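Practice record 12: protein with adenosine-5'-diphosphate.
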Amino acid sequence: MNIIIFGPPAAGKGTQAKLITAERGLLQLSTGDMLRAARTSGSELGKKVAGIMDRGDLVSDEIVIALIEEQLDNNKDAPGFIFDGFPRTVEQAKALDKSLSSRDMSVDAVIRLAVDDKVLMGRIKKRFADEGRKDDNPKSFKIRLDNYNKQTAPLLPFYENRRLLSEVDGLADIETVAASIADVLNKLEVNVSSETLPFWKRIFGLS
Ligand code: ADP
């Protein structure tokens, strides 16, 4: 099963992705984490993206798509993936479809964490004070939010049209959000596994 955890910056995608990994063993692929790791390692890529990230802008589609493809190839035995912070543009979403289908996989669900901008601003002020992530400063955060609204939110109809989108209240506490996501995924697992049964077994509800 491959799922996308979707939402604006600071919606709690990373936190929830980690909980899903702990429960189901799906591998979390966070482009934000990969880019931060590149920076920490001092690689050429890290140097190239540092300024863009600190400003709150998106790095190029080409870079993040290559990072994702590398992970798909390096983790062929994974039971499935959780995409966290990717895709963020329509171009990336199309590339993800291609990358997955060329490996006999597809996106099975997109879970949207619905949150409110004012709450996000509050959360991020606290995270900036606690962790000091440069791109959490108010100016960069505003740019990240604008980029989300302009470039990433258009993916919602893209996935909704394909009946892949489920929405979860991202303002609830962490456990409640996790439980709502688990509900969505449990239903999905039932559907996915029943699709693999012969039709007569499906009709009679046999498994
Ligand atoms: P958040 O979800 O809190 O905004 P991330 O850790 O997902 O943070 O991303 C941090 C930064 O990394 C982004 O602001 C952007 O500069 C870069 N980045 C991460 N993922 C992508 C992506 N899919 N496309 C373009 N840039 C990305």
